[in-house]
TrEMBL record:
This is Aspartate-semialdehyde dehydrogenase. It comes from Musa troglodytarum. The active site is at 170 (acyl-thioester intermediate), 283 (proton acceptor). CDD domains: ASADH_C_bac_euk_like. GO terms for biological process: alpha-amino acid biosynthetic process. Signal peptide: none annotated.
Amino acid sequence: MQVTASAHRVHLFSPLSSPALSLPSAKHCRCRYRNAAATTVRMGLREDGPSVAVVGVTGAVGQEFLRVLSDRDFPYRNIRLLASRRSAGKRLTFEDREYTIEELRPESFEGSTSLCSAPVGRLAKSSVRWLSNGDRSWWIIVRRFGWFRRCRWLSRRRSGKGALIANPNCSTIICLMAATPLHRHAKVVRMVVSTYQAASGAGAAAMEELLQQTHEVLDGKQPTCKIFKQQYAFNLFSHNAAVLSNGYNEEEMKLVKETRKIWNDMDVKVTATCIRVPVMRAHAESVNLQFEKPLDEDTARRILEGAAGVTVIDDRESNHFPTPLDVSNKDDVAVGRIRQDLSQDGNQGLDIFVCGDQIRKGAALNAIQIAEKLL
Ligand SMILES: N[C@@H](CC=O)C(=O)O
């Protein structure tokens, strides 16, 4: 396998494409790249690999990006670590080399083919605006999907080259990793999702806040609330995203809209309730599915056991089912509590419980799997 310049030129825009949802399992990918890397020494794959730019490298997702790139032997010709002005100049070691974090600027991408993970906020907006300065660029945007959709038009109009690919929101990725194989078998007509979302989804500062508040509460002190408006430790609350005029918050509407896009089915009915729970880095989701065709729980379990990127933990006897800790720092999402929904006739309903590492599969890994697919 040789990566050529033309292989980097991706003129496809797929705002919520699901390639990573259908990728081979992490195991397979890792082998593929191990083999590729071994071949590379002879074929110069790394020399011909893409220039990688990690935007927002100091954030939780940016850091995970580096870990995943390394774990998977992702081939790259060179790597640039970009962040806001605040972090520029800091030194960072990656794969035994020291790098200086650079401030993201319009010229950051000149002449390079870029893989990019953008964090929230102005940085993401600048990144996309400057895409036209890159040469043969494709970008994978991890966050800010809503805004990014408007940018698709921008980049196409301005540069006529490159590709912008939005990683779905983490709660959608984790949910659909489990629901999609079942959907392919029996077609989901309605899905009800209840999430239990970890601190990591709100960034590194929220993780720190959870830790700090836990210490404070245990010490009998008043918890410090900076990221969230209310006490987080030993508590849970409705997701911190903005609440819209229809009563849903933005996080819930992402599950609705992104599912429809990924499944290319504008008729599928989706409703969600998203809750922030005091867990560090993996989301859990209870998912109720209604199918067009009957699907019994044994068949569903077999389908999930064979699904890429999914591990089944479903031990009724010992009451062992997926937990956020089971999946923390893991590639696969875990699925359990696979059972027929008693409230639906004709084996047309199932309940499942899914857990997935929000930073890894919900963000960095999924984006890199998309990049691997493109390569
Ligand atoms: N929106 C999610 C993060 C996903 O990337 C959350 O708030 O947990």
